[in-house]
Amino acid sequence: MRELYSAEDIATTVQRLGAEISADYPAGNVLLIGVLKGSFIFIADLIRAIAVPTVVDFVSLASYGSDTASSGIVEFRKDLDMSITDRDVVIIEDIIDSGRTLETLCHLLQQRRPRSLKVCTLLDKHARREVPIAADYVGFSIDNGFVVGYGLDMDERYRNLGTICLLPQS
Ligand code: IMP
Ligand code: MG
Q1: Which of 76, 134, 165, 168 is deepest in the core (most CB within 10 A)?
Q2: pLDDT in tens, 24-51
Q3: 40 neighbors 92 (Cβ within 8 angstroms)
Q4: Ligand nearest to the CA of 63
C-alpha cells in the first residue's frame, strides 16, 4: 500500500471544508447527512470544523454491484430519522466514483423538498464519472485506483487507518 494523504494532510483539508461550509451557512441550522459507513470518521472530524450550529443524521445505502464498482441500483438500508423538508442539507460522502450512488440519493432526497441540497465529498474520482453529478465541496481529487483508510474500506478492512492509502492493483 502507498500512502496518498497523511493524517496532517487530511486534517488540513477537513479544516478547509469546515470553513467553506461555515461561510456558506452563516445563519447555521445546516443538516449534515452522513452516508454510512464510509463517511463516519470524516463527518466526525468535519462537524467539529464547522463553526455554525449544525445537526447530523445518517443514511445507509445498499448498492448492488461488484466489490469495486457500483451498479447504481440503490436503496435505503437505513433511512433518515429527521425530516429534511425546508432544511438546508449537505450530504457528506467519503468518495464519489461513478456518481451513481450519489445521483440516486440526491434524487430520493429532492423528493422530500429540502430548501437546499449540496454535496461534500472527501475524495473525488472525477475521471471515472458515469453520470453528470458534481460535489459542491471536494477534499481531494484523485485519479484511478482504489483507496482505503480514514473510514474507507476494502471488504470492511482498513477503515481504521489514520491515513488514506492506495491499494496495489490486483
Ligand atoms: P459510485 O456509485 O460509483 O460513485 O460509488 C461510490 C461508493 O463506492 C463510495 O461511497 C464507496 O463506498 C465506494 N467506493 C468507490 N471507490 C472507492 C475506493 O476507492 N475506496 C473505497 N470505496 C470506494
Ligand atoms: Mg460511500
Answers
A1: 165
A2: 999 999 999 999 999 999 999 999 999 9
A3: no
A4: 1
- Please choose from 58, 94, 97 the residue to mutate so as to test ligand 1's pocket, defined by most ligand atoms within 8 A of CB: 97
Ligand nearest to the CA of 125: 1
What are residue 162's phi and psi, to 5 degrees? -85, -10
Cα gap 164→150, rounded to integer Å: 6
Question: pLDDT digits over 106-157, tens only?
Answer: 999 999 999 999 999 999 999 999 999 999 999 999 998 999 999 999 999 9
Cα–Cα distance, 147 to 164 (Å, whole number): 7
Q: How far apart are CA 123 and CA 87, in angstroms?
A: 25
Among residues 136, 135, 148, 122, the alpha carbon closest in space to that of 11 is found at: 122
Q: Which atom of ligand 1 is nearest to the CA of 145?
A: 19
| Residue of 126, 142, 152, 157 to mutate, ligand 1, most atoms within 8 A of C-beta | 152
Which residues carry out catalysis? 97
In the chain the beta strands, taken as DSSP E runs, fall at 2-5, 30-36, 54-65, 70-78, 88-96, 116-124, 137-141, 147-148, 164-166
What pLDDT is stored for residue 157 in this prediction? 97
